[in-house]
Amino acid sequence: MSALEIVQLEVGLLQNFCEVIGCPRTGEAVLVDPAFEVDRLLKIVADRSWRVTTILLTHTHDDHVAGLDEATEATGAVVRCHPAEVEVARRLAPRVEPVAHREVLAIGEGLVEALHTPGHTPGCVCWYVHEPAAVITGDVLFVGSCGGVGHAGSDPAAMVESLQRTLGSLPEHTRVYPGHDYGKTPTSTLGWELVHNPALRADTLAAFCAYKRVPVPPRG
Ligand SMILES: [Zn+2]
Ligand SMILES: [Zn+2]
């Protein structure tokens, strides 16, 4: 039996995915990006007699944190996110602690590692579950595409690094859990994405910007 069970839930009108990650042996669980329909997330937890100790954020765009206040009130959980996103999170939740790149959190008998993957926002974090190998990618990587890099605070060059180096170096059997249901399937594997996803196939900044139809930023 795997150390952790991952339950994916599609919520809201923007095809957002939230996850509940729990340790069946100890009952400890975390929520990822409680956005909409928090009651449905909490029902998954209650049905398994789990208890939520922590809430993990991929980033603090509204469609990923819209239910954070409700979720923290119901669970008393501590919120973990990248330092660059802490200020926004603290407007919504009383207990927010920054997480460092490569910091590994224990969830019951399982491990979840924070991967800082800037580009969509400066503080994007992908959450890498060690067993079963899985990565919650938020708006960095979608099945068959990737998140936007054309808005204030985004950085195409950082996005290429995050996709190629940080996510691209995970084991190919790693299951990808994206932040939105924008692909042909709700999840995929990193190996599938490396072959089929144009965002990962574009391995230079120029190729990536051409794919995303954004100007190539000047070298700084
Ligand atoms: Zn976003
Ligand atoms: Zn989003």
Please explain how this structure is put together.
The chain is an alpha/beta fold and 220 residues long. Helix content is 26%, strand content 29%. The protein contains eight helices and 14 strands. It has a six-stranded mixed β-sheet. A hairpin with an 8-residue loop joins strand 8 and strand 9 (125-129). The protein is globular. The N and C termini lie far apart (49 Å). The model has no long low-confidence stretch (mean pLDDT 97). The protein binds zinc ion (ZN) (2 copies). One zinc ion binds next to helix 2.
The number of helical runs is: 8
In terms of per-residue confidence, which ranges show pLDDT below 50 for 5 or more consecutive residues?
Answer: none
Oligomer: single chain
Structural shape:
globular
Distinct ligands: zinc ion
Determine Rg (CA atoms, Å): 16 Å
Alpha-beta classification:
alpha/beta
Integer average pLDDT: 97
Order of helices and strands, N to C? Answer: EEEHEHHEHEEEEEEEHEEHHH
The share of residues in extended strands comes to: 25-35%
Distance between the termini: 49 Å
Strand order of the largest sheet: 1-2-3-4-5-6
Strands, total number: 14
